[in-house]
Amino acid sequence: MRTIKFALLLISLTVISCKYSGTTETTKTEDFKINYEKFTLKNGLEVILHEDHSDPIVAVATLMHVGSNREKPGKTGFAHFFEHMSFNDSENVPVGANRKMIPEWGGSRNGGTSNDYTVYYEVVPKDAFEKIMWIDSDRFGYMINTVTEAALEREKQVVKNEKRQRVDNAAYGYTDEIIRKNLYPEGHPYSWTVIGALPDLQAATIDDVKAFYQQYYGAKNASLVIAGDIDVAETKKLVEQWFGEIPSGPEVEEQNFEPVVLNETKSLYFEDNFAKLPEIRLVYPTVKNYHEDTYALDILGQLLSGSKKSPLYNVIVQEQKLAPNVGTYQNSSELAGEFVFRVRANAGTDLDQVKSAIDDGLKRFETNGVNSADLKRIKAQLETDLYQGVSTVLNKAFQLVQDNEFNGDPSFITKRAKLTNAVTEADIMRVYNTYLKGKHAVMTSVVPKGQLDLAVAESKEATVWIEEVKQDVANEEVSQGEEAVYEKTPSKFDRSEPDFGKLPVFKAPAIWKGELKNGMALYGIENNEVPLVQFDITIPGGQLLDPKGKEGVSNLFSDLMMQGTKTKTAADLEEAIGLLGANINMYSANEDFHITGSCLTKNLDETIKLVKEIILEPRWDASEFSRLKQALETSLKGSEANPNAIASNVFDQLMYGKDNRFGINSSGTLQSTKDITMEDLKAYYHNLSPKDATFHIAGAINKTQTIAALSPLKAWKGDTINVPTLAVQSTDAAGTLYFVDVPDAKQSVLYIGKLALSGKDENANNLDFANEILGGGSSGRLFQTLRIGKGYTYGAYSGITNREAVSPFAIRTSVRANATLKSLEIIKNMVKDYKESFTDTEVELTKNKILKGNTRAYESLGAQLGILRRISKYNKDDNFLDTDQDELLSMNLENYQAIIDQYLNESEMVYLVVGDKATQFEEVKKLGKPVVQLDIYGNKI
């Protein structure tokens, strides 16, 4: 569950539909739409159905028209808290089923709360469709009688942990609270954050929960969308049966607030315990969602900072070198809107300079106006975004449900597309003059502790409520508690669990192969659902080819290669890509180098020409190299404030050792990158050879068309590159607990694990299978115990990273500080007892979960690219998905216990805690393991 802020899922030009014929011919945007049928039940629930038979899955989204904007001062955060409560129990569904059973059916589920609404959603294999109707309708209409005091208190702890993880323990986490408190007048429903204040949450009672439900969870205050492999006539009957008896609920009055007007600019500063870099934000009040000016404001945000030719980027990043990037964007909600400027500056930068640079950039925009080529580029990109929004049934469900509930028109996307395309240069200048030029804003300076001199001059100190986490946990211990005693709500239908439908058959996609004369292998999957393609060129080597002592070269090289060609500056290249509505990127992974891209199928030829130019004609721009090195330094410095980043880096070091490439941050370190030169990057360039490279492509294109489009790459030549094989040996860290101090941390980040196996190992699949019950999502024991049972964390998971080298199995979670020892004890005992507690029941559960999960696992083009990558990297057969399933079906209890015994031996595991030493260091010694303190770089103290 999460607090969310959908501007609308695809920003500006959104989802359009599914009438694509599979050809590569140009089709007008107006010809595309999402086909749907809408009807209203007698209780007022509006229902939208969309058929999509491309995959045997169904998505369900229920949107309740209630967010944090319906709360009152003193009861903030309640909409989000109620979302959590809704996932507990209901009258006709077994305790814990909502969170546990759906993943076991091969589905996924979640929810989210914004200022304006709460949404619940699931995606399941087709055979579990009626079961979702059962669970979803029971959560909606039959949960309130099951609420207990124990459930209330347990969920309070979960939400507290969510806030600690996302706000209290995160750099810049309090900024949103500061802005809202000062942008909106006292009592305005946007003057507090969605997650609210913890004292308000702690004070919540069962009576509060019931009153909230009765007021806002009526059928008239919701929209339901069902999208996917359904039969409309049959689905109508099921909706009537399962949702028709839910009470209508009282009328919920519309909210109307006058637009916010600031009489002065409010400048505030805050010293952040976790920040390492100074950050400035300016927020201007603008217009609410669906207002005619939102479309021009969306484009204005991209024009001001979204490209290398944009005025703010030019002044702040390129000329004055104050920050690695700058962001500007419009954010519209139901009642109001905001236009945001955000710059996280380089270490030690005075934010007065940044503010002055923002002003200079805006003056340049006023002088030069809107560049017509930029406007054309943005609209081309939006055309691609339009189709990307229909690649999954869940995205379509989201869009339909939001536009129906907030605009009364599920198909508003068609109108939105036209309104966006109609935006003119004059419209953009008009909204700039109306909402930004000469207007007042809320300005925040968030600076590292002890660096107040970096804040904007004459700022006033911002006030936020900061929790004090005490070691005394008696009042925070929670449990499942007794089930509620109540009289079941009568129903004319049998509301017991329905049977599964016909088992959907997972069909692995057809794969074609080929090879170019330069030695590059070709792998493809044709998918004609939308007129898009995604591609990836994988070149062996990646970070393994970094020079010793200069780790980070490949990462920096991948960035520099995208900064222009011999005939194009960085800005020219960005514009050329944008005018095609395409994306082209490069990145270096542990063992491979990747060139990736996506575009409309009709633009693949031109996109590949640009790829060829990027590969064969690098620019080697010295000024861009200097900028990227500064940006990398800023990023690495910023990560020193992130407890999760610290934990990840130190854990890798404990697994592999300081001298092993896999034990070093993939981007390098401040030490290893400081002496990297342009010559180092030019030397690395020779590793870009097509000889052992593989081109993967998925989308609306066949083998013949792909080979024709790749014609420009025939000019790319090269020899086989010798990629070193790193020896991986276990370190002497096994059985030891390591502790890294992050003073005043509200949570402790825990990593527990050991080196396990290679992705090429014959047991790789089996270890994945064996982990499902332990840490495979919300139904895993870690999540069920640490979050659902104890309320210690927001989430807990385990797994192994796939790579050719031996990789670690790891358990990861962040727990509230004063539950650190208890959480470690639970994890320790759970792993120790895992083999003996794994029975034939778990064997069957694992099979069912994975087999059914496969029906939705490969729906998107990105997932299909993943299939191709696994085939080429690990030399798998084309039908490996089928053989993997056969392997799963053949595993018995003895096989599972043998895998657990071999790879999940608790005594061989390393324990890492990143948290507050003052309160937790002595506590963790009670676990009974040797304890070693490290600094944030992994050095022993």
From TrEMBL:
Q: Which residues form the Peptidase M16 N-terminal domain?
A: 47-169, 529-648
- What species is this protein from? Olleya marilimosa
Which family would the database say this protein is a member of?
Answer: Belongs to the peptidase M16 family.
InterPro entries (alphabetical): Metalloenz_LuxS/M16 (IPR011249), MPP/UQCRC_Complex (IPR050361), Pept_M16_N (IPR011765), Peptidase_M16_C (IPR007863)
Q: What is this protein called in UniProt?
A: Insulinase family protein
* Signal peptide segment: 1-21
> Which keywords fit this entry according to its UniProt record?
Signal
Keyword field contains Signal: yes
Q: Which Pfam families match?
A: Peptidase_M16, Peptidase_M16_C
Q: Domain named Peptidase M16 C-terminal: which ranges?
A: 204-382, 675-849
